Amino acid sequence: MSGGEQQMRNLGTLLLALVAASVFLAACEGEGFQEKTGETGERKKRDVATGIGGRNTDTGSLFGPGGLFGSKADKKVGGEGVGVAVNAYLWRASLDTINFIPLVSADPFGGVIITDWYTPAEQPNERMKVQITILDRELRADGVRVAVFKQQTGAKGGGWIDAQVDPRTNIDIENAILTRARQLRIAQGG
After folding, report:
1. Over the stretch 57-102, which tens digit does the pLDDT of each residue have?
2. Strand 112-115 relative to strand 126-134: parallel, antiparallel, unpaired?
3. Do 11 and 17 touch, CB atoms closer than 8 A?
4. How far apart are CA 1 and CA 9, in angstroms?
5. Hey, which residues does 145 pair with through a beta bridge?
6. DSSP string, 63-87
7. pLDDT tens, residue by residue, 27-43
8. Can you tell me whether residue 18 is helix, strand or coil?
9. 117 vs 54: CA distance, rounded Å
10. Which among 118, 145, 161 is positioned nearest to 5, based on CA atoms?
11. Are the C-beta atoms of 145 and 135 separated by less than 8 Å?
12. Percentage of the chain surpassing pLDDT 90?
């Protein structure tokens, strides 16, 4: 297994652990967990009504508004699926920006796009892989994160060896995605 594949496997394991921990913590926020506050040790009605941090817990807390499975209000409004669970402009712009690289995975509900290894014609001894994560349902500058992985052929012509990626590369791709997302939004009159 190459270093890049091991790195992706480790990233996947870490992501799975974070999701499991988030689900566990969200389950602990249920009605069975009561923290006593105030001088008498009883919870105040205001604390119960507003939830942790002053926000209403009916909107959900796991991965943003509506939570992992949607809010109660969302379920009352419509019974059909929502479609893309991330910002549609960022999603489309991400796909447009990396359209020359074959995709391995594109998950519109999780907001993750992973490309296959791509070897540019002008650099046959290098290859790169891109992972784009859309972090928000809003079109925001911090709503997209790009990670580029690069490998070069070994000195003796052996296998691929992980190489350093210029940190500016990630930012340049993020900026290209944001620019394209703005163009799509303007073109649609939004």
Report:
1. 444 455 555 555 555 454 444 444 455 678 999 999 999 999 999 9
2. antiparallel
3. no
4. 10
5. 133
6. TSTTTTT--HHHHHH-SS--S-SS-
7. 555 444 444 445 555 55
8. helix
9. 46
10. 161
11. yes
12. 46
The number of angstroms, rounded, from the C-alpha of 150 to the middle of its chain's C-alpha atoms is: 21
Average pLDDT, whole number, for the chain? 76
Tokens of 15: 């992501």
Which of 1-15, 43-57, 108-122 is predicted with the least confidence, judged by mean pLDDT? 43-57
**Run of H or E residues at 187:** helix 167-187
Question: pTM surpassing 0.90?
Answer: no
* pLDDT band at residue 151 under the 50/70/90 scheme: very high
Fill in the DSSP letter of residue 182: H
Output 67-74 pairs: Cβ under 8 A, ≥24 positions apart.
67/26, 68/23, 68/26
DSSP classification of residue 140: -
Alpha-carbon span 49 to 53, nearest angstrom? 11
Closest listed residue to residue 71, CA positions, set 115, 137, 122, 18: 137
User: How far is 47 from 49, CA to CA, in rounded Å?
Assistant: 6
Helices (H) and strands (E) in the chain, counts: 5, 5
Planar angle of CA 166, 136, 97, nearest 5 degrees:
45
